[in-house]
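Page 47, continued from p. 46.
Same chain as before, 78 aa.
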Amino acid sequence: MNNMNPSGGLPDLIEMKRAGRTNVELAKDSGGNINAPAISNLLAKGLREFPSVASLRGSALALKVSTGEVIEAAAISL
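Result:
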C-alpha cells in the first residue's frame, strides 16, 4: 500500500482528499460518474460491492488521485 492511501479504505480516502468540498461538489468534480447520494451512502454505510469502472475513474478525478489509488482503497474497504 502506498503512503497516500489510508488504511480505512475508500471512505477514509474521500475524507482525506475532499479538501472541504461537499458531496455535491465532489459529485460535480467526478464528471458525472458518481452522485452526491451515492457518496453520502458510501460514507455512512461503507462499500458493499466493488465500484464500477466509471465510479472508480470519477472518484479519482474528483479526489485528484490516480485510479490505482482509488482501486486500492476500494479493495481495502471490502
